[in-house]
Structures are given as C-alpha cells and as structure tokens.
Amino acid sequence: MKWSGSEAARKITQTTTSRAIQGITIFLVVVGTITIAGDLYFLSNIRKSLKKHHTKTFVSTVSTHDSTSLHNRTVVANLLREAGAMVTDESKLPTLAQIADLYGPRPVILGLEHCEHFRNTVPASERMLGAAGMFSTGTNLVTHLLKRNCYIPERAEKYGLETATKEQLGMRWQVPWGKHTPADYKIKHATEKAQLINKDYILPCVTIRSPWRWMQSMCKNPYTARWPHASICPHLVVNSSQLSRQWNPVTVKYGAGIENYTSLVHLWIEWYDQYARLVLDDEVVENHATSYPVLIIRMEDLIFYTQETVTQICQCTGGVIYAEKPFEYVVESAKKDSPGHDTSVGLTEAWIKYSKPLQPRAGFVQEDYLAGIDALNHDDRFGLMKLLQYHHPPSN
Ligand SMILES: *[C@@H]1O[C@H](CO)[C@@H](O)[C@H](O)[C@H]1NC(C)=O
Ligand SMILES: *[C@@H]1O[C@H](CO)[C@@H](O)[C@H](O)[C@H]1NC(C)=O
Ligand SMILES: *[C@@H]1O[C@H](CO)[C@@H](O)[C@H](O)[C@H]1NC(C)=O
User: Where are the bilayer-spanning segments (predicted)?
Assistant: First the structure.
C-alpha cells in the first residue's frame, strides 16, 4: 500500500476550497450528531432516547434546519445542556456560525489516510491509542474522552468489557515515550511504566492548538519551557531589526532530555514538525522502518465537535464507541485532578473562551506579532496554520 502525504495535503486543500459549498450541509449533520449525543446523555431509558434520536435526526437535516439556527444562541445552549454542561448566561455563548467562522464547519484531522495501514499491521487485540501533544493542547482532554467513550472490541473480548481496565481496552494516558516528548524520542525513550509496551502497537493521538492561543497559554504557564520573558511575553525576538533579527531561544526540559528551540513560536513549529512529517512528508512516510502512523487532532475540535472527532479517532484503530451507554463529554475541567496546570475550564467556559476571536496581535507587542507571523508562514514547511484552518490574529 502506498501512503502519500502530499496527496493527503492536497485533499485537505481541495476540501477547504469547496467547504463553502459543503460546509453548511456537513455542519448541520455534525450539529445533529452532537444533539443526539446530548439527548442520550440524559436519558437512562435507551429505547426512549432512540425514539427521540430519530426525531432529532430529522429536524437536523438541511431542509428543516434553517440558517437562523446557526445564529441562534439558544440552539448552542441546548447543545451544551444536553451534553450535561451548565449554562447560566446564554448571551455569552457563541453561535454555531461564529464557531464555523473560526475553525471551519467540521473537524480537521490529519493522518486518517494511514488508519487502514495501522489496522492492517497491528493485531486488533494489541492495538492502543495514546495521547501526545505539546503542553496545554488538550492531551488530558483527549484521553478522558477516549477512555470514557471508546474501546477496542477484540480487547473487550479478551479482557471483558466490564472487568477490563481502560488500558486493557486499548486506551492509554499517553504514548510510551511520554506525551510531551518530541516524536523523535520514540525510538530512544519510553516512560518507565511503559517499557514493556510495543511502541509500534500504539497509535499516537497528537493534539495541537492554534499557535497564537497556545503562546498566550504558555505565557501564563510555561511548564518546563524556559526563556527570558520577564516583562514581555512571548518575547519571540531580542532584536527585531529586519536585517539582523535575533530570536529569543527557548529551552525545554523533557523527561528524556533537554532540547533547545529558536523561539517560543519555533517550539510549536519544530515540535509539531516531527509528528507532521510522519503524515505529510512523502519520503518519511514511505520509509516504513522509521515512520509510524499518527493522528493530528485540533484541540478546538475536541471542544466544539467532540463526538465526531472522538468517533473518528476511535474508529481509526478499529475501536467502537460504547453502544450501551450515552456518549460522555468532559463537562468539568479536564485537569482538576492534576494540580499545577494552568487554569482549566469546563465545557461551557471552553465554548465561550475558544470562540472569542483573537485580540489584535493576539495581545502581543508588534515585534512579537510580526515575528510570529513570519515564522509561522516561512519556517513551518508544512504550513500547518493553513492545513489546520487556523488564522493569524488581526493587526489592529
Ligand atoms: C432559537 O432556538 C430555540 C431553540 O431551538 C427556539 O425555541 C427559538 O425560537 C429560536 N429563536 C429564533 C429567533 O429562531
Ligand atoms: C539590533 O540590530 C541592529 C542591526 O544590527 C543593531 O544596530 C542594534 O543595535 C541591535 N539592537 C540590539 C538591542 O541589540
Ligand atoms: C541548549 O542550550 C543550553 C543553554 O544554552 C546548552 O547548555 C545546551 O548544551 C544546549 N543543548 C543542546 C542539545 O543543544
């Protein structure tokens, strides 16, 4: 079987172009799906909820769901409530149209074209999913969602669906080489607990987030990244003169070692480059000795298009979503059990926070803004901003 990364990239580009036409249709299907999940969440009587499910599917179709719903905050409030979240002030909520404007009308997942290869080469009863991702990109969130909703049926057969641990059902907290550890360490390093795991049997689920919002978050909590930014953040450049621009290097301490990066924005670019090339660089992809399948998942999709995103990840490994219980969202903060992380937010707060358009220059000084755009446009060879449908903040 031939993998073609640039083919995948082209496909995504084409899809983006035609999204104006398909967008609303698909969006409504997604909304329908979320609605159904929400219903299921609340109703213990499955039969009753299935009845409602059919009704909802019908009312969510394009012919009956007029465009005013896309601008109706009550529709969003109902989606959140049906997912189990609390909504106190509807007026603060975004509309579905606003969300689609920022992130597109449906999830963007890179690497789905390699799922078949993964399923063909890894025995079903050995397959695993594990989170990876830079700090503050939703690695905990994706793990919670997968553990609550997805399992590998062959593993369930082997260990018993009721009695098995989530790990035995194929859902791991992180990839064995450490979730924040760069992809290149896969060969070199495994977290102590996971020494015995066959690293080729795990599909990394790599979360990513808009680099601008990610930098804002890193300014609040830098985790183990260190760089001088006492009075100004992200402080990408120490000399912004066009002719002799000097970046402000960042050092990150991983469990497995220390790495240096050109600047904070380059940490995002270079860290994701190592995973992206496993999906997008034809030469790397075709070298089966060193490449391995991964999925790259937008954190924003885990928030806004939760069920569809989780289902696609799950099915990639041949996993299934629990049929006998409703889809479970993470309504509470995904990080409340791990102290020391940055301010975490619940589902409603996340919908409000991530649907706000970026402030001018993302709130950064002009030098950081221009240097950030420059780096993202020129130093990221895969153009992840575009592929993932992220936008730069406005200049003013
Ligand atoms: C908005 O949606 C709610 C819930 O579906 C509906 O009751 C309400 O009439 C809608 N408002 C408008 C202006 O369409
Ligand atoms: C920045 O670079 C320019 C051009 O080389 C130089 O004239 C200037 O002194 C530098 N500024 C700082 C703060 O180093
Ligand atoms: C990273 O930078 C630190 C401090 O500048 C230096 O001591 C270290 O050798 C560098 N590490 C690598 C791998 O380049």
Answer: 20-43
Query: Considering the domain boundaries, does residue 122 fall inside one?
Result: yes
Q: How far is the CA of 8 from the centre of ligand 2 (A)?
A: 43
Ligand nearest 64 Cα, by number?
1
* pLDDT tens readout for residues 293-311: 999 999 999 999 999 999 9
As a whole number of angstroms, the distance between CA 32 and CA 203 comes to 29
Q: What is the DSSP letter of 393?
A: P
**What is the pTM for the complete model shown?**
0.82
280-314 burial by CB neighbour count: b if 16+ within 10 A, else e? bbbebbeeeeebbbbbbbbbbbbbbbbbbbbbbbb
Atom 12 of ligand 2, nearest CA residue = 239
- Mean pLDDT, the chain, integer: 83
- Report the domain count for the chain: 1
User: What is the structure's pLDDT at 192?
Assistant: 59
Q: How far apart, in whole angstroms, are the C-alpha atoms of residue 14 and residue 21? A: 12
Host domain of residue 378: 106-325+357-387
Phi first, then psi: what are they for 391, rounded to 5°? -120, 150
Task: Please check whether residue 362 lies inside any domain of the structure.
Answer: yes
Alpha carbon of residue 175 to chain centroid: 15
User: Measured on CA atoms in the order 262, 266, 269, 270, is the torsion positive or negative?
Assistant: positive
Integer Rg of the chain from CA: 21
User: CA torsion sign, 69 to 72 to 74 to 76?
Assistant: positive
Could you give the 3-state DSSP secondary structure of residue 211? helix
Task: Give the list of residues 6+ apart from residue 260 with CB closer than 8 angstroms, or none.
Answer: 249, 250, 251, 252
| Average pLDDT along the chain, 396 residues, taken 10 residues at a time | 45 43 40 39 32 30 57 93 92 94 94 95 95 96 96 96 94 92 79 69 96 97 96 95 92 94 98 96 85 94 95 97 93 56 70 96 97 97 97 96
The C-alpha atoms of residue 286 and residue 203 are separated, in whole angstroms, by 17
Residues 6 or more apart whose CB falls under 8 angstroms from that of 179 comprise 130, 131, 132, 133, 139, 173
Residue 161 located in a structural domain: yes
Whole-number Å distance, alpha carbon 260 to ligand 3 midpoint, is 6
Ligand 1 within 6 A of 61 CB?
A: no
Question: What pLDDT is recorded for position 334?
Answer: 52
